[in-house]
Amino acid sequence: MLLLISPDSVEEALDCAKAAEHLDIVDVKRPDEGSLGANFPWVIRAIRDAVPADKPLSATVGDVPFKPGTVAQAALGAAVSGATYIKVGLYGCTTPDQGVEVMRGVVRAVKDYRPDAFVVASGYADAHRIGCVNPLALPDIALRSGSDAAMLDTAVKDGTRLFDHLPPDICEEFVRRAHEADLLAALAGSVQARDLAELTRIGTDIVGVRGAVCEGGDRTTGRIQPHLVAAFRAEMDRHAQEHAAAVTAAG
Ligand SMILES: O=C[C@H](O)COP(=O)(O)O
């Protein structure tokens, strides 16, 4: 499982850089603008310069409306600014067809510019609270649009976690559908270290985290702490080893 960490500023990205050996993807976002809030192009560029060149840089395009042209242009902006993972939160899409239309525009805009870019279609585990597309529709939206990964986060950051809204067996079904479509499955949403056993067991490819590696566990007022990133990674590694041993023992 890959670890994606979301700093909101160049200063925090520098703290991520101190923990670079413990993380896999640096994900630029602006939490003030929402769960997948977009940051400024110059912040993406500065963070690209601040983190080791071999660390992939991701950027969120926002909790986007159903406006395919607007979103495609914004996604290209993130790619031009140096992001190679482009994450789109389909906040304003109420049907799978709307999600596919938005993501097709993103895929074309981004991959025309940079064919090796990695496009992530994200929905929300708490979609029922905001009236957007069903989270289990995301793998099919990603497949039909030519995206590379399907993701879920939580839209409302009120302390509730991914598993509060979608229990592990539903997340497992999400991962199964993503893998069946040959996509990566990414999960986030106030994930805590205590969720890692289940996330590992169900085959999650990427776990996205912010709050759990911030001082005081607070994604808004706390800052990302390199030692918390290291501790989170150690837990991930422990669960990966235990899971591998259990699979081997089961024959
Ligand atoms: O993409 C990952 C998100 O930034 C997760 O943030 P969170 O762990 O604070 O919910």
Automatic annotation (TrEMBL):
InterPro entries: 4HFCP_synth, RibuloseP-bd_barrel. Transmembrane segments: none annotated. It comes from the Bacteria. One of its GO terms (molecular function) is lyase activity. It is an enzyme of class 4 (lyase). Its EC number is 4.2.3.153. The keyword Transcription does not apply. The keyword Zinc does not apply. It catalyses: 2 D-glyceraldehyde 3-phosphate = 4-(hydroxymethyl)-2-furancarboxaldehyde phosphate + phosphate + 2 H2O. Keywords: Lyase, Schiff base. SUPFAM superfamilies: Ribulose-phoshate binding barrel. The active site is at K29, K87. It holds the Pfam family 4HFCP_synth. Signal peptide: none annotated. Catalyzes the formation of 4-(hydroxymethyl)-2-furancarboxaldehyde phosphate (4-HFC-P) from two molecules of glyceraldehyde-3-P (GA-3-P). This is (5-formylfuran-3-yl)methyl phosphate synthase. It comes from Streptomyces uncialis.
